[in-house]
Every structure is written in structure tokens, then in C-alpha cells.
Amino acid sequence: MAVRHEVENLIRRGNIFYWRARVPAVFVHCRPGSRLSLSLHCSDHKKAQIIGRKLNTRLAELKMNSKDVMTTKKQLQILFEHVRDEEIERLDDVSTMAKRNGRGGDVVEMELDLEVGWACQLLAKFGTRSELILEGDCPGLTYLLKNGVPASHVDAIRANYRGELSTARSPGFEDGIRRLIYHFEIEDTALNRERAMSKMFEARAAALLDIDERHDLVDRTSSEFTGGGRASKSEAEVKLAEVEPATPLSLTLTEESIPASTATDIPEEADIAYLDLSPRPATVRKASPKPREAEQRVVAVSEFEQECEKLIANMGDEWTAETERDAMALVRMFKSVLVEHGVEHSGQIEQYHIGLLRQHFNDIPTDWGRSSRMRIMSSPELRAEGNKLRKAAETSGGKAKVGLAAGTIRKHFGNLQHFLKHLKGHGFEIEDWTFEEVKPGAEMISAPACCVTRLLPKPD
User: Fold this and answer.
1) 116 class by beta-carbon count within 10 Å (0-12 exposed, 13-18 middle, 19+ buried)
2) 154 near 144, Cβ under 8 Å?
3) Which uninterrupted H or E stretch holds 255?
4) Which strand (E) or helix (H) includes residue 37?
5) pLDDT of residue 413
6) CA 355 to the chain's CA centroid
7) 113, 214 in Cβ contact below 8 A?
8) pLDDT for res 421
9) For 430, phi and psi rounded to 5 degrees?
């Protein structure tokens, strides 16, 4: 017989307390009159009351917010506001230090913010896959000039844009975006990552371009950005800067004074002066993703997960869902270790990095794969988590759950070897590495049939 115990929805059956609540009517997908039933797995009255009150509060929150379900668009807006506010705080600190150093009303400080802000705005609008040259008929240049950006500041904006673009294309940038969208509970998809990246640059641009309060001491008439009259390049000069070569001062003539040229007007020395017929030594090309520009293709570390998805598709029914998850987890971990040590593509991976991965296995929590929080951690963060567990075990006198089991490590190296064979089979540059000296033990373990062949030693 169930006995009620003071707190709403809390009942006791025997020695165990249960939380049993009626499903609110606003949950239209549940049948009317249905109930939620949850065992609290405790027999202590006070502890059960605490848990019951928390569950009642959570149910009330769900009932109140059920009609206002958080959409991805709203989550991205919250992400935007968070990044913008953080950037504003950082810029306020920079502005305060500028005032401390006597540059509170310096127009250069304001223009630096605006130049970086427009560079971020270009990345938000055009993305990171295209590279804008901001010259000639470049759409990025047209966008800047259309929005009133002075032509004299285009060169500085171009330099800032290239710097931001280089950072956005670095191997660790996408991992940072993944952590950001996880923090705001946004679904981790390629589309949402692209949206989050655009929102992040848009938020930074909004903070940098908001100069009213931060640079209130600056004389706005001294900057072209705010309607001043500094000497500047015209729009035509900016667009034609790289198209028309500069003319020496000694040969500058008006258009009317230049006579029609004939073949006899050009001295022979001029023709010969610009000809270089000497043989040039053959240049050695470096590895590149484009086959026409390289002796061997490489694959960027940031694209390892996409390549692993191709491998899983190729294996088809030969791999179980569990094997596919293990392979993807290994690739993500290996990618994180490579990014940590500055490796950008497959052609830079050495035997040394295989050893780093082996040591990494020893220093991470044993149950890292069971925690959604740990699964998105970077390699240094995972090792730091393992270090915390070791220190806690030393304090309590217990054994720290740190380091993967020997069988798990062998399984991971088997999947890694299979992944590297996949890359090599598709023409990417991969060195011949050995796993025999880093795999623990030699005993056979239980593994899928496709993995057993990978555990055998390589033939001489």
C-alpha cells in the first residue's frame, strides 16, 4: 500500500520512496490522466523530501514553459548576445587601459576597432570558405563601399580580414565552435556549426562597431569613418590599384599629350629588358589538397571526421553500430591530439604522434566515453580531468579510474590502423607507422571479425 508523505507527489512503498506526479494537461502528446512514476532509490525520509521538491519544481517549470519551446533560432540569438556582451566587456577593458595611457581621445584607437569590426562583418556575411581579395570587382569591396566604409581604410581592413580568416580556418577553431554550441544546447550539425560561426563573427562585429560610449571622447570630425575629411583614396583608385601599374613620376603625362604610339617609338632595349630566357631550375612542390599543385594529396586534420564517415559508409554491414561509434570516437580523439601539437594535415603526422596518442590513453578517465560532457573535451582538458581523479584518489586512499584498459587500447589502435589505410587507399599522403611497440600485451581479445585481421603483426 502506497503511503503519502507530506511533500506533494511523494509516496512510499515498503521502504522505498517514489515520485508519482500527474502529467499536466498542457502536454498534449500524453494521454489525459496519465502519470509519471519514478523510483528515488532511497529510504531516507528527509532525502526523499528534498528530491521530491526538486522534481516538483522542475515539473512546474516545464508546465510554464511548454508553450515557449526553445528553437534553434532563439538559441543562436542567445549565443549572439553572449558573445557580443563578452566582446564589449573586453573592449571596455582595452579602452580603459588606453585612457590610463593617455590615449582616451585618440582617433586611432577608434579606427582600429572599426577596421577589425568590418573585417568580422565580412566573415559573418561571406563565411570562411571563400577568400575575399577586396580589390577590383570583389563583392566584399563592393559591400564595404556600399556601407560607407572609407576607401582609405580598405587596406587595413584587408589585413585584419586575412588574420581573422586564418584563425577561422585553423584546426582548433571548429572544436571551439562545437564547445560553444554544446554550451547553448544547440544540435551539433554542420549547418548549425556554420550558423553559430556566422553569429559569433556578427556579434564581435556588432561590439566593435558600437563606438558611441566607448570612444565618446574622440573628435568625430577627424576620422573619415564618422564623416571627417582626412586625405583618402577614391573608390576608383582602390578598385584599379592592382589593375593599372604605377607610372614613374618622370613619365607622367596628361592623356591629351600622349601621341599615338608606333612600332618605331619603342626602343629595342625595352623589349629585351623584360625578357628572361634563362632556364629556371625545377621547383619542388609541397603536399597540397589539390592534385595539380602537389606530388601527393593530403587531407586536413579538420576533415578527419568526414573521412571517417566515408569509411563507415564503405564498411556497410561489416561493422556494427558499436564499432562505428568506437571508430568515430577514436578519430575525434586522435584529431584532438594532433591539433594540440600543431599538426594541420595528414602529411605532417609522424610516428611521434602515435606515441603521444598512446600516452594520452594512459592519462584520461577510464569512463570518459560514458559522459557527454567529457566526450566533447579537448585532449588537454581530458588529461586535466584524469589528473583531478588521481589527486582525489590520493586524498581518499582509493584507486583512480584513470587510463584505458589494455583491450580498449588495442581496439582503438586497430580502428586507427584501419582509418589510416582508408586514407592511404584514397591517395592521401600517409607514412608507414608501426603499432607493435605501443599496443599493450599480445593476447587475443574479443573483437569484430573485421578487427581481428588488423590486430595481426605486419608481414616482413
Assistant:
1) buried
2) yes
3) none
4) strand 35-39
5) 82
6) 26
7) yes
8) 82
9) -135, 130
Place of cell 583491450: 407
The torsion angles phi and psi of 428, rounded to 5 degrees, stand at: -85, 150
User: Phi-psi bin for 403: left (phi > 0), alpha (psi -120 to 50), beta?
Assistant: left
Query: How far apart (Å, rounded) are the C-alpha atoms in residues 173 and 393?
Result: 34
Checking DSSP bridges between strand 35-39 and strand 10-13, what pairing results, if any?
Answer: unpaired
Burial of 9 (0-12, 13-18, 19+ CB in 10 A): buried
Q: What is the pLDDT of residue 247?
A: 41
Helix (H, G, I), strand (E, B) or coil at 102: coil
Q: Report which of 294, 271, 270 is spatially closest to residue 284, judged by C-alpha positions.
A: 294
CA end-to-end distance (rounded Å), the chain: 73
Which residues, in sequence order, are bridge partners of residue 104? none
Q: Is the dihedral of CA 218, 220, 226, 230 positive or negative?
A: negative
- Supply φ then ψ for residue 439, to 5 degrees: -75, 135
Around Cβ 318, how many Cβ atoms within 10 Å? 10
- Over residues 291-350, the pLDDT tens digits come to 444 456 788 888 888 888 888 888 877 788 888 888 888 888 888 888 888 888 888 888
**Nearest in space to 433 (alpha carbons), one of 445, 450, 416, 449:** 416
Query: Residue 241: left if φ>0, alpha if ψ -120 to 50, beta else—which one?
Result: alpha
pLDDT value at position 292? 41
Rounded Cα–Cα distance for residues 455 and 458 (Å)? 9
d(CA 84, CA 71): 20
The residues of the chain scoring below 70 in pLDDT are: 1-5, 25-33, 65-71, 229-296, 372, 435-460
Query: From CA 325, how far away is CA 448, in angstroms rounded?
Result: 13
Dihedral pair phi/psi, residue 192, rounded to 5°: -70, -30
C-alpha cell at 192: 548549425
List, for residues 221-278, the tens digit of each pLDDT value: 888 888 775 544 444 444 444 444 444 434 333 444 444 444 444 444 444 444 444 4
Whole-angstrom CA distances from 63 to 22, 27, 56, 185 are 12, 8, 11, 20
Q: Which amino acid would we find at residue 74? A: K
Alpha helix locations (H) across 210-267? Answer: 235-240
Contact 142, 132 (CB under 8 A): no
The cell numbers describing 203, all together, are 556579434
Name residues whose C-beta falls within 8 Å of residue 7's C-beta, 6 or more positions apart in sequence. Answer: 48, 49, 52, 53, 56
pLDDT at position 11, please?
Answer: 87
Q: What is the DSSP letter of 428?
A: B
All three cell numbers of 82, joined, read 553572449
Rg for the chain, CA atoms, rounded: 32
Q: What DSSP letter does each residue of 177-205 carry, written as one string?
A: HHHHHHHTT----HHHHHHHHHHHHHHHH
